[in-house]
Amino acid sequence: MSRLTVFGIEGIGEIRPGHDLAGLIADAAAAGSDTGLADGDVVVVTQKVVSKAENRLVPVDPDDPLSHKPLVEQESVRVLRRRGDLVISETSHGFVCANAGIDLSNVERGWAALLPVDPDRSARRLRDGLRARAGVEVAVIVSDTFGRTWRRGVTDVAIGCAGVAGIVDLRGTEDALGREMQVTEVAVVDELAAAAELVMGKASGVPVAVVRGVDATWLRDGNVLDEVVRHPNDDLFR
Amino acid sequence: MSRLTVFGIEGIGEIRPGHDLAGLIADAAAAGSDTGLADGDVVVVTQKVVSKAENRLVPVDPDDPLSHKPLVEQESVRVLRRRGDLVISETSHGFVCANAGIDLSNVERGWAALLPVDPDRSARRLRDGLRARAGVEVAVIVSDTFGRTWRRGVTDVAIGCAGVAGIVDLRGTEDALGREMQVTEVAVVDELAAAAELVMGKASGVPVAVVRGVDATWLRDGNVLDEVVRHPNDDLFR
User: Fold this and answer.
1) Do residues A148 and A37 share a domain?
2) Are residues A35 and A143 in the same domain?
3) Residue A170 has what pLDDT?
4) Is the Cβ pair A184, B202 closer than 8 Å?
5) What is the CATH number of the domain that holds B70?
6) Which chain B residues have a beta carbon less than 8 Å from that of A10?
7) Which of B57, B202, B211, B230 to mutate to test the interface with A (most CBs of A within 10 A)?
8) 20 to 30 Å CA-CA from A92: which of A206, B21, B23, B223?
9) Are residue A144 and residue A68 in the same domain, yes or no?
10) Which of A156, A185, A195 shows the shortest C-beta gap to B153?
11) Confidence of residue A24 (pLDDT cuts 50, 70, 90)
């Protein structure tokens, strides 16, 4: 029976444009007591540090709390709903989220962080970097914090991944009573992002967590944009 | 730094109406190697076994794969969308999900399982039962598998809870750079349900999992219906 462990990587420090994020993660993991990376780990990295390392930072008026709003319009390909200052829109990636994924928390005053241009590619680069830096074959998920249409509160989901399935398809496998199962395409990559968030906290400055013990059959080539993002023509509410 | 472990409880067996589910969970946990329950654990129980124990079973024509559809209409207070056989509706609890949460998987042929009448109450009863049966102070989450509006694949979410916060409100706490945070009401109860699903699998007959190591400040009175379910007047898409 599988047993997962989930732990944060401390001591990564503030990330700046051009930093070698994979190297910093590998070093911090190795420096921690009992946090060294191992083959088969799923390393979950928050969008904010990926965007900083990739220099997706844009200057904004530090005295205007709405100064990032023009960026929200710029980064949206379709606005679905507005209420007050809140914009629910579709990004160029196809994500539907608040304010095109742009916010000012955990970014230095006077700057806003945009989403990575291609978060799956970001995940692949980090995976390659961790292989080179730490000698381990891990999966990488880039996570972000999204709201939900029908439920209050936010949860972390995957916006990019590498080395792990976005969706695990159990359709057609038998359930515990030997009947063919019905809707069972499980978005494991989002469940892994959610599990990682539980040890990160939003304010504690731990932007990377590891999920260890994941089903080895899930550790294949995968991505978020093709597997998880629902095409606009397929949903029932756009 | 927090470190979570997540593990399934095996050997619970097929649940039938009237079974003492708390007693069966306590016994199975104690019988497993290294799965005994401890104070502070979050015990995640799938809706299907809760519904069976509470006799929320309704006979359906075993030869008609759509025989549960009249039940879907009956259990819906508002139908939001239809596409083919799929109904997205709001249940009496306020959940928005496919087919009013009714499906035929992991239920004996000829029967459909409805959602518990009050899943928060179900969670409270299980929590009380585990205290009585195993002498432990645990939190309980009743989980179910829901789709998402904008993303493919399903994930597990909480439909009821007891002894754990539905939402942890980090608004107004400082982020890692000392700035006041913005949207930070985290639905930890849904992230815990998602983490538990990672060790259950859909077809493996493990309807209960434990998350150990959860932040002690989250272990307070909580519930899903008031905290997590978004009121119809508050969402932007109903």
Assistant:
1) yes
2) yes
3) 73
4) yes
5) 3.90.1660.10
6) 1
7) B202
8) A206
9) no
10) A185
11) very high
* B122 and B21 part of one domain: yes
Residue A207 has a pLDDT of: 95
Residue ranges of B 20-79 with Cβ closer than 8 A to chain A:
none
Q: What pLDDT band is residue B182 in, cutting at 50, 70 and 90?
A: low
Contact criterion met (CB below 8 Å) for A229 and A93: yes
User: What is the CB neighbour count within 10 angstroms for residue A28?
Assistant: 17
Question: How many C-beta neighbours within 10 Å does residue A193 have?
Answer: 32
Taking CB atoms and an 8 Å limit, are B3 and A177 in contact across chains? no
Among the partner residues A81, A151, A166, nearest to B229 by beta-carbon distance: A151
CB contact under 8 Å between A167 and B153, yes or no, is yes
Mean pLDDT of the A116-142 span: 98
Q: Render pLDDT for B6-57 as a digit per residue (tens, 0 to 9).
A: 999 999 999 999 999 999 999 999 999 899 999 999 999 999 999 999 999 9
Q: Is the pLDDT of residue A216 over 80?
A: yes
Domain range for B214 is 5-56+116-227
Check if the beta carbon of residue A191 is closer than 8 Å to that of residue A175: no
Whether B215 and B150 map to the same domain: the answer is: yes
Contact A191 B155 (CB under 8 A): yes
- B233 inside domain: no
What distance in Å separates the CA atoms of residue B192 and residue B157, rounded to the nearest whole number?
8
Residues B144 and B32 in one domain: yes
Using pLDDT thresholds of 50, 70 and 90, give the confidence band for residue B61: very high
3-state class of B90 per DSSP? strand
Do B142 and B221 belong to one domain?
yes
CB nearest A195 (choices: B179, B191, B203) = B191
Please tell me the distance in Å from B150's CA to the nearest CA on chain A. 6
Q: Is A135 in the same domain as A197?
A: yes
Domain boundary pick from A70, A85, A114: A114
A206 touching B, CB under 8 A? yes
Phi-psi region of A136 (alpha: psi -120 to 50; beta: other; left: phi over 0): beta
Which tokens go with B82? Answer: 């239809």
Closest by CA to B224, choosing from B172, B114, B134, B146, is: B146
- The Cα–Cα gap between A85 and A90 comes to 16
Q: How many CB atoms lie within 10 A of CB B61?
A: 10
In a domain, B234, yes or no: no
B145 contacts in chain A (CB < 8 Å): 183, 186
Q: What is the CATH number of the domain that holds B216?
A: 3.30.1330.100
* Domain-embedded: residue A236: no
